[in-house]
Amino acid sequence: MASIRRLPEAQALLNPAFGAYLLACSINAATKTGARNPLPWPSAFLVLPLVLPADTRADLPVKASRTMAAWLAEHPRHQAAFADRAAALTDYTRASLRHGAVEVMGQGLRCPRAPRPVTADNGSEIADCARRAALVGRWLAATEPVTAFTLLGVRP
Fold first, then answer.
1. Sign of the dihedral through C-alpha 77, 83, 86, 87
2. What's the rounded Cα separation, in Å, for the pair 57 and 125?
3. Cα 27 from chain centroid?
4. What is the pLDDT of residues 89-142, one digit of tens each?
5. What average pLDDT is seen over the chain?
6. What distance in Å separates the CA atoms of residue 76 and residue 57, rounded to the nearest whole number?
7. Residues 6+ away with beta carbon under 8 Å from 101
């Protein structure tokens, strides 16, 4: 991962403030669903490895009408690569959680205020990351954490 950090694009994407924003987008979308429960904190470690890699992000559906399980069945290469990506992004996710955009509570994670919407001025890649993070949040709200981790081939 050290060589990846030298690339300017990687440094921009691996900024803890940006990671915190993406987590806030995901958690906000998850808690807007019917139950409005906080997102279980281990689920936060699934968001960034699904959203940040460009190849995975490009294959994510636009709407959450497809389930995570159905999407993974159609894209087994993302499932195969997930464990390594999740391990590589664990410290980054922790740093992003400490950034203050989300609250870590006993019941899980919640977003104290809705993240600012992305505008055209922010760039298309940032907007795409934010939209996909919200999609992943809706998936995680509808999927038990144990099931999500199992589907992705990792454990908390």
1. negative
2. 10
3. 9
4. 999 999 999 988 888 888 889 888 889 887 767 678 889 999 999 999 999 999
5. 87
6. 14
7. 20, 21, 23, 24, 111, 115
Residue 105 in contact with residue 97, Cβ under 8 Å?
Answer: no
pLDDT band at 1 (very low <50, low <70, confident <90, very high): very low
DSSP string, 102-155: SEE-SS-EE-SSPPPPP-GGG-HHHHHHHHHHHHHHHHHHHS-HHHHHHHHT--
Tokens 């470690």 locate to: 45
Cα first-last separation, the chain: 21
Q: Hunting for tokens 């390594």 — which residue is that? A: 84
Q: How far apart are CA 80 and CA 91, in angstroms?
A: 21
Enter the tokens of residue 29.
């979308």
Residue 32 confidence (pLDDT) above 90: no
